[in-house]
Amino acid sequence: MKLVLRSLFGLLTLGAAFSAQAQTYINFVTCPVVRDIGAELDVCFYADYQGETYHLSPIGLIDWGQPELKHRLLVEGEVVEDQAYCGGKRFIGRTTVLPDVDLECNDYMPFNNLIIGEQRIDKRPEHPKYRSVFEAMKTDPSVSIQPAPVSLPVESAINDEGGQVERDLVVYFAFNRDRIDGVSAGKLLDFAEAAKNGDYQVVAKSYQAETRLDSGEKLAEHAGMAEQRSNKMLRILTGLGIDPQRISFDNYDGNIAGSGKHDWKHRRIELSLE
Question: What pLDDT score does 55 carry?
Fold first, then answer.
């Protein structure tokens, strides 16, 4: 009997460990739920999935892929266990608003005085071109709809210590999208400046991919997405002053196979200065 119990306990332990490991990466499609977290704050979005609650804004992406009511959301990421917001766990990854209208995705959770948002405005980067705007927003919310500073607080393409040019940049994309997030846009400004100042050639490789959901279903990007992203990037780089004759693209139109771990990182453009 003791042997049987020990064996059973071992199986349960392995099962629990496997379950915990399986939840490290999340890949699912859901209806986002909007939650009221206080009168002085904007709403947030969450979803319940496999017994857990997740905040549906990936860490570090405040301007991109935010959920919308009446649309389902593709969620891809790696869970960060020690961070939470909106009553749910946070993750590093990407979310993509799916284009089709779904009227069932219209749930609202009223303020319950238990899950209260925090004034995250004070936790933004200490950057002169941001701080004046953020401070003004505290007393005048209308400032939030004014144009944002053009120069974003990102690392310069020139290394301050050794003066070396950062010659490589990777830009990631949402599923079936060619839009660039704000952080990447800021890095592109520095990248383009380095390309012009150093008289470099810009060599770019564009990829598209599939995503493997936790259910086993695979979502493949449309044919031609890699080329569509290249065309968008070409317009951006030439708009930043780079001679189009100094830019070359290779498009990999076949979808990279999904594994359920960081599939969103396959949807990318790799830029190099040569």
Answer: 94
Residues 73 and 95 sit within 8 Å (Cβ to Cβ): yes
Confidence at 259, pLDDT banded by 50, 70, 90: very high
What are the C-alpha distances in Å from 104 to residues 30, 72, 99, 108, 273?
A: 11, 9, 14, 11, 47
Listing DSSP states for 217-261 in one string gives -EEEPPTTHHHHHHHHHHHHHHHTT--GGGEEEEEEEEEEPP-SS
What's the token pair of residue 70?
């009446």
**Residue 57: what are its φ and ψ, rounded to 5°?**
-120, 110
Q: What is the pLDDT of residues 22-49, one digit of tens each?
A: 469 999 999 999 999 887 778 899 999 9
Q: Where are the domains of the chain?
A: 2-118, 120-149, 154-273
Identify the CATH number of the domain defined by range 154-273: 3.30.1330.60
Largest separation between any pair of C-alpha atoms in the chain: 78
10 Å CB burial of residue 237 (0-12, 13-18, 19+) is buried
pLDDT at 94: 92
Residue of 249 and 132 predicted with greater confidence: 249
Q: Is the Cα torsion angle 65, 69, 74, 78 positive or negative in sign?
A: positive
Question: Which residues, including other chains, have CB under 8 Å from residue 236's CB and lie 6 or more apart?
Answer: 180, 188
Q: Report the predicted TM-score, pTM, of the whole model to 2 decimal places.
A: 0.75
Query: How many residues are given for the chain?
Result: 274
Q: What is the pLDDT of residues 217-228, one digit of tens each?
A: 999 999 999 999
Q: What is the DSSP string of 2-48?
A: HHHHHHHHHHHHHHHHHHHHHTSEEEEEE--EEE---TTS--EEEEE
